[in-house]
Amino acid sequence: MANKQDRNFPWLNGRNVAHRGLFEAGTSAEENTLEAVERAVKAGFAVEIDVRTSADDIIVVFHDNTLERLTNGEGLVAKWGFKQLQNTLVGNSGKGVPSLPEVMDIVSGQVPLFIELKSPDHDDIQKVCAGVRHCFEGYRGPVAIMSFDPRIVAWFRRYMPKYARGMIVGREALLNWKNRLVIPYWLRKTKPDFLACDINLLPNSFCERWRRKGKPLLTWTIKDESMAKIGQEHADALIFEKGSGITSPTP
After folding, report:
1. Would 226 be classed as within a structural domain?
2. Whole domain around residue 39: which residue ranges?
3. Tens-digit pLDDT profile for residues 10-25
4. Average pLDDT of the segment spanning 191-202
């Protein structure tokens, strides 16, 4: 962590990042599960997870807006309470949807934790932001928030300035000329400590200028060795999945 004056987070590009944990589809270590997170920690990788809110405002670790792709449940995640989500089995893990505090207990400061906040269906970002803020209380390890939604990053700049924050840069940001025009505005509003750019957009002049300023650039999602090679050349840390040839820093 750092105060408003000290925005130096050397751990942001200190190691590669396991996307949704070190997951393996079809196994007990499905994406964003406790086992996938535990595998990443044991291997020495930083961990990236996705979070959103349940109907009773618990911060849960789940990527999709709806349950169908990965669970035996149906409908919007946000329409179910946490108890119901705990009983909704994720893939072949045999376990339900975990909460953010459960993940943080496993990571326990051993490796950096990158938390991607998903935008709610409605315009009110307060619940997901405040919920994550509450989960951070008492946590001492290196942790960063990031989002495609600049409103979320701006919220954390205002209310939790001591934590590292990042903007996720996707196709919509760089390939749409109208969106490109507003990027400087949102960078001023959010003051991100790092960017996380789609690997399919690298290299590009925007990210090259960012790196020349000495600021960390992460890239996602590295799925094979050719992507890894591009990422290693044009970014500071790789958000990767199994099969990409990324080796564990832990012997």
Report:
1. yes
2. 16-240
3. 999 999 999 999 999 9
4. 98
